[in-house]
Amino acid sequence: MFTKKQQLIGLDVGSSYVKIVQLAEKGAGFKLLNLGVVPLPAGTVKEGRVLNSKALVQCVNILTKNLKVKEKKVASAVSGYEVMIKKLEIPVMTEEELNSRMQTELRQYIPYSLEEVDVDYEILGISKERSGNMDVLLVAAKKESIRDYVNAVEACGLNVYVLDVDYFALNNALEMTEGFREDCIALIDIGSHKALMCIAVRGVPVFTRGLAIGGEQITEQISEQLKVALEEAERIKLGDSVPNISEGELEKVFVSVIRSWVGECKRAIDFYHSNYPDNRLKKIYLSGGSCRLPGLERVFREHMDVEVSVFNPFEHIQWDSNGFDGDYLNYIGPQMAIPLGLALRKTKEK
Ligand SMILES: Nc1ncnc2c1ncn2[C@@H]1O[C@H](COP(=O)(O)OP(=O)(O)OP(=O)(O)O)[C@@H](O)[C@H]1O
Ligand SMILES: [Mg+2]
Q1: Cβ contact 71:345 at 8 Å
Q2: Is 270 exposed, middle or buried (0-12, 13-18, 19+ CB in 10 A)?
Q3: For the domain that residue 214 is a member of, what is the CATH number?
Q4: Are residues 162 and 292 in the same domain?
């Protein structure tokens, strides 16, 4: 018989922090039950791969113990580094024909044998431009990368029920909270070692791109300029005052790096526009821990010719003022976009 679908714990393993979000369905929306963030020792995770499984286990244990999380069923995400995502336009065909067509398409895009990859695809609908064609989203990831990641999470005593891709979790977070208020929006999540850009047209992610930008670049700049260790530079970045640099000088460091980030984002958006000239970008949402940098939102606004907002998913999630502090949720919200997108997932109906 049918078992009730169960809400999963959202677990995001970033390169600097592990994050957990737990939600419960409430009326037409969701209620926040739990959230937590723990820093990972440097080098635990690199380019989406868990290099130090022991350190990850320790950090996840700290989180689950402190938050008293009993639930073991999680939704997590492999990093876009490890995944190929491609939107294709092909003639309308049957499921069977589509299956073999996808095999042929894949051979063009992946550099290894088909046995080595897990493949998923979704029909997005009839092409808007050509009615005899349909749009298909093709997603492929190396089996080995998926297995390694799942093993690392399961070593923490958790069970991976849903394995998503971080871009889609980000897109889902926006869809289920703020909603898609414009036809074409870009979500840009700026973390510590990378940024994810996901451009969605009428809610469907059509363009995804990993950008080699992130908060660690600013930490490195501070460390270089002030000749201090990276740990100290990180504390200075987060607001620790130091005698040999003024706030104004520090902000100059921030702004020069943020300008280069804006340049990277603009280049990716130009590339998107050259491929999708009919769907011009209307709005940008920023998320990730690094969007808290003083001046970041302003610099993006000054240089982008579309509206820019910071995305805080908790603005649209119910929470109990006995258990959570509104100021803290506003502070942490943008950094929690991806784990929140994961926490929206449920077990599949059996
Ligand atoms: N108040 C703040 N001011 C400036 N930077 C901040 C602030 N708070 C956090 N950060 C930066 O945000 C980054 C962490 O963000 P986030 O948690 O999104 O990254 P991550 O998911 O661990 O990394 P990645 O997505 O790159 O793998 C770090 O570089 C951290 O220094
Ligand atoms: Mg991240």
Answers
A1: no
A2: exposed
A3: 3.30.420.40
A4: no
For 171, the domain range is 1-81+145-178+312-350
Same-domain status, 290 and 328: no
- pLDDT at 350 > cutoff 60: no
Task: Evaluate whether 317 touches 32 at the Cβ level (below 8 Å).
Answer: yes
- CA nearest ligand 1 atom 8, residue: 289
Tens digit of pLDDT for each residue in 45-70? 999 899 999 999 999 999 999 999 99
Instruction: Give the mutation target among 15, 16, 165, 236 for probing the ligand 1 site: most ligand atoms within 8 A of CB.
Output: 16
Give CA 290 to chain center in angstroms. 13
d(CA 80, ligand 2 centre) in Å: 11
- Claim to verify: residue 205 and residue 217 sit in the same structural domain: yes
The model carries a pTM of 0.95
Residue nearest atom 24 in ligand 1 by C-alpha distance: 191
- Ligand 1 pocket, residues with Cβ under 6 angstroms: 14-17, 191-194, 214-216, 234, 237-238, 288-290, 292-293, 335
Give the CATH number of the domain where residue 125 resides: 3.30.1490.300
As beta bridge partners, residue 121 has 138
